[in-house]
């Protein structure tokens, strides 16, 4: 959800809504609530503490018409947009690392085919590989929801599931 | 007058763009951080719009008349408390209130700047100029205080397209509602310009509303019969929203739900979502012999009770639709979910997202008096199927459609 106006300097907690991506630095926390089949992609450069989080919906932006208007909606275009914006803020492309979470398959509906969540995770691995960004950790799949919180400073991706699942730190 | 998804999509972008500019200007002017909540296009009856004002709260509003790219009235409504908070921030006086002329004119000025924000956003999207009249300050406790005198305000039974945006001040209980009432003629011209295909006759939207009505009634009736809890339909709305907006509207808390896919004309997805306490009450009502263990877990028996309820509610809901559309709609077996709300909705949104950007959402809330039974029903049909279903609909049949099948007929499903 976009916020208009806020104090410069102080660490912020920013909500990254579905189809959005946010690049930030230091101790800011970037948060996405209730990912089911959506995939959270966190990229960061540990050297300069610049990082970003994308809350993506669909695997293939290159095949979609409006991906230039909403790069955060698609896995492939979100990764490229995050990288570009991070480099603009001082990150070094070759130092960037990636973590992903989400991509569950909550329902076994016939119309879902092999699973909408799985397709997103596969697309992320492929795009990262293509761009030479190492995927250092992932928590994907299953049939439960996740809320994620990312801090660029430390590169920590905190993942909260329901009561049975608990909290995971990547 | 005909409309299609392309035209509605443009209206949606107008609403979103306008809300963003209005929020930005509010922040600029007052220094208060703001954010835009979910934006919706609502198809609402006049009675439902009036119902929005029936909470006894005193509201203040700033109204302007529009001409040019779009003719009609734009009204910004805020409850008196919210208005005072903002005016106090603006005037730097913690006791400003709204009693004197200075603060009323400050409120009018503020409303005008926000109205202009909305209008500028629409003009950008429509790539045209829209003229704005001088603002009128209004206050009162009923809808007629704000738009009772407007010719274009919908009559009780008229289905109006309402732009609804919510702007919140961060960290404060301050919110604004915004209404746009376009003139019929101006709307028809706009729709004609924006439409990219055959589209649907506006009158057929009546069919939408009948679908929503019958579906909702069936859900409440089924729930009452199965649980013995006396339930009623509290909200019944037809929204046109971007797919991304759907999960954002669901509570960020653990919910219990039952999900279905349905197949026919239209096909799509149907979700029933309960908060945990309501789900617990339903289990207690349906599985009376189970001892009340204090764990938060839902046992296998609890789950199947909720799935069973969902299954029969789904049959009732979709039979209601099929009856209006004179067709058959089949649904899948129920899938149980107990998870954070948005996670239950996003798989459906993703699947539909492969072929559409927006969705019509039949949004229903069923509640019980004096007991926890809050059930949110989301029915999200595939867009092209829905368009086909509506085009096939014989409008003259709508009024003749009898109330749907008796409950006994559903037991075999």
TrEMBL record, chain A:
BP terms from Gene Ontology: chemotaxis
Keyword check for Hydrolase: yes
Entry's EC annotation: 3.5.1.44
Catalytic reactions on record: L-glutaminyl-[protein] + H2O = L-glutamyl-[protein] + NH4(+)
Protein name: Probable chemoreceptor glutamine deamidase CheD
InterPro entries (UniProt xref): CheD-like_sf (IPR038592), Chemorcpt_Glu_NH3ase_CheD (IPR005659), Cytotoxic_necrot_fac-like_cat (IPR011324)
GO molecular function, one term: protein-glutamine glutaminase activity
TrEMBL record, chain B:
CDD domains reported for this sequence: CheC_ClassIII
InterPro entries: CheC (IPR007597), CheC-like_sf (IPR028976), CheZ_family_phosphatases (IPR050992)
Any GO BP annotation: chemotaxis
CheC-like protein domain: residues covered: 301-337
GO molecular function: hydrolase activity
Domain of life (superkingdom): Archaea
Keyword Transcription part of the UniProt annotation: no
Keyword vocabulary terms for this entry: Chemotaxis, Hydrolase
PANTHER family attached to this UniProt entry: PROTEIN PHOSPHATASE CHEZ
Protein name: Chemotaxis protein CheC, inhibitor of MCP methylation
């Amino acid at each position: 959800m976009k916020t208009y106006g806020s104090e410069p300097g102080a660490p912020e907690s920013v909500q990254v809504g579905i189809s959005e991506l946010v690049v930030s630095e230091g101790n800011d926390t970037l948060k996405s609530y209730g990912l089911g089949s959506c995939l959270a992609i966190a990229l960061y450069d540990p050297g300069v503490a610049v990082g970003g989080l994308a809350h993506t919906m669909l695997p293939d932006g290159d095949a979609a018409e409006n991906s230039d208007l909403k790069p955060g909606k698609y896995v492939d275009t979100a990764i490229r947009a995050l990288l570009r914006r991070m480099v603009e803020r001082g990150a070094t492309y070759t130092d960037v690392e990636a973590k992903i979470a989400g991509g569950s398959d909550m329902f076994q509906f016939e119309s879902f085919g092999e699973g909408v969540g799985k397709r997103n995770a596969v697309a992320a691995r492929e795009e990262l590989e293509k761009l030479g960004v190492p995927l250092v950790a992932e928590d994907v799949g299953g049939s439960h929801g996740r809320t994620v919180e990312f801090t660029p400073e430390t590169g920590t991706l905190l993942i909260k599931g329901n009561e049975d699942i608990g909290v995971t730190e990547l | 007058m005909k409309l299609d998804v392309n035209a509605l999509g443009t209206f949606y972008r107008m609403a979103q763009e306008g809300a963003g500019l209005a929020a930005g200007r509010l922040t600029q002017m007052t220094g208060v951080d703001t954010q835009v909540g979910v934006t919706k296009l609502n198809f609402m009856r006049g009675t439902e719009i009036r119902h929005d004002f029936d909470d006894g709260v005193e509201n203040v509003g700033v109204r302007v008349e529009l001409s040019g790219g779009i003719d009609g009235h734009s009204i910004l409504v805020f409850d008196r408390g919210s208005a005072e908070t903002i005016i106090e921030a603006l005037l730097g006086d913690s006791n400003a209130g709204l009693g004197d002329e200075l603060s009323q004119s400050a409120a009018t000025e503020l409303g005008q700047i926000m109205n202009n924000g909305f209008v500028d956003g629409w003009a950008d999207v429509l790539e045209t100029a829209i003229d704005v009249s001088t603002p009128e300050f209004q206050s009162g406790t009923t809808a007629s205080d704000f738009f009772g005198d407007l010719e274009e305000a919908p009559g009780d039974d008229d289905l109006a397209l309402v732009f609804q945006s919510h702007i919140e001040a961060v960290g404060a209980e301050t919110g604004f509602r915004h209404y746009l009432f376009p003139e019929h003629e101006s709307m028809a011209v706009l729709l004609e310009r924006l439409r990219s295909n055959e589209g649907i006759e506006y009158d057929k939207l009546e069919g939408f509303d009948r679908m929503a009505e019958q579906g909702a009634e069936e859900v409440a009736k089924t729930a009452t019969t199965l649980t013995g809890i006396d339930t009623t339909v509290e909200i019944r709305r037809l929204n046109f929203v971007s797919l991304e907006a759907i999960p954002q509207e669901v509570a960020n808390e653990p919910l219990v739900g039952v999900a279905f896919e349905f197949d026919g004309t239209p096909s799509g997805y149907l979700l029933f979502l309960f908060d945990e306490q309501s789900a617990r009450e339903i289990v207690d009502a349906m599985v009376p012999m189970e001892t009340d263990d204090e764990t938060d877990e839902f046992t296998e028996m609890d789950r199947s009770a909720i799935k069973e309820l969902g299954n029969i509610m789904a049959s009732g809901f979709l039979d209601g639709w099929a009856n209006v559309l004179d067709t058959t709609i089949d649904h899948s077996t129920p899938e149980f979910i107990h998870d954070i709300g948005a996670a239950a909705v996003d798989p459906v949104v993703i699947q539909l997202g492969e072929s559409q950007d927006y969705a019509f959402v039949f949004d229903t809330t069923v509640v019980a008096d004096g007991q926890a039974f809050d059930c949110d029903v989301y029915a999200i049909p595939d867009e092209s199927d829905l368009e086909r279903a509506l085009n096939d609909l014989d409008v003259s049949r709508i009024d003749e459609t009898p109330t749907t099948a008796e409950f006994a007929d559903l037991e075999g499903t």
